[in-house]
Specification:
This protein has 246 residues and is an alpha+beta fold. It folds into 2 domains: 87 residues, no CATH class; 108 residues, no CATH class. 28% of the residues lie in helices and 28% in strands. The chain contains 6 helices and 10 strands. The strands form 2 sheets. Strands 1, 5, 6, 7, 8, 9 and 10 form a 7-stranded antiparallel β-sheet that branches. Strands 3-2-4 form a 3-stranded antiparallel β-sheet. β7 and β8 form a beta hairpin. It starts with a helix and ends with a strand.
């Protein structure tokens, strides 16, 4: 075969290889995805359907099902009626004027923060998230920051203790209940914790898929209630770590 003929055959094969590589790279991108744990659509004054992550930017401007009056440490009062209001006027010290509205405010606050996080999430190239993500043994592998702690002093002691590594090291789990693939309830002596998956995406720019979860902490006999939003990462050896907490 002549050199000219060889070139005619080699050139198309080279082009096909380039197209094939580009196609693989496109397929490898993992889209940002939402789960049932994001309840913001249910907390709005009107029924809003959410079909993709980008639509969250609209929900942030939508009015809540109820207006909530809050105050800061200086006593200044402010009415909040949307996530947009919350982002503009709230701070870490913000509390509701009516004490009985605090739990409702926590739910709205956390879901606003979760929506903001999901909007900032990027496509991933790799994912080490297990299937299923939530299971009975999750407390034995997830970081200790997920444990049930009711005071900052207790949290400080736990974080400073190197022998306490995992969630179950701090809060031994006695039983669990599977609510759905994206929601589990873990019971312990004195209370229980509801864990829900908000969504998935790259939150720390390492191109590896991260997990956003919400935790609702309850005591069995009492009025204590807290909500937390956490971003978790897992590596190729199934070692979980905390990226951030809200």
């Amino acid at each position: 075969m002549s050199n000219k003929s060889c070139c005619l055959f080699i050139l198309p094969i080279s082009i096909m290889a380039i197209f094939s590589i580009n196609a693989c790279n496109a397929i490898e991108k993992i889209p940002v995805s939402l789960a049932d744990g994001l309840t913001l659509p249910e907390l709005l004054s009107s029924n809003v359907e959410l079909s993709n992550v980008d639509e969250l930017s609209k929900l942030i401007k939508e009015p809540w099902y109820s207006e909530i009056v809050v105050k800061n440490n200086s006593g200044h009062k402010l009415s909040l009626s949307s996530c947009e209001d919350y982002f503009i006027g709230s701070s870490l010290e913000t509390r509701t004027v009516k004490q009985y509205e605090m739990n409702a405010y926590l739910e709205l606050k956390v879901m606003c923060e979760a929506s903001k996080l999901m909007l900032s999430a990027k496509l991933s190239k790799l994912s080490y998230l297990p299937i299923p993500i939530l299971k009975e043994s999750s407390p034995d592998f997830w970081p200790k920051q997920l444990s049930f702690i009711t005071s900052s002093a207790e949290s400080k002691r736990s974080n400073q203790n190197p022998e306490l590594k995992y969630w179950s090291d701090v809060t031994p789990i006695t039983s669990f209940k599977k609510n759905s693939e994206s929601s589990f309830t873990y019971y312990h002596i004195g209370g229980y914790q509801e864990v829900g998956i908000i969504g998935r995406g790259d939150l720390n720019n390492d191109e590896i898929e991260d997990l956003i979860v919400v935790i609702r902490d309850h005591v069995s006999n009492g009025s204590y209630f807290n909500m937390r939003l956490l971003v978790l990462s897992v590596d190729n050896q199934q070692r979980w770590s905390l990226i951030s907490e809200y």
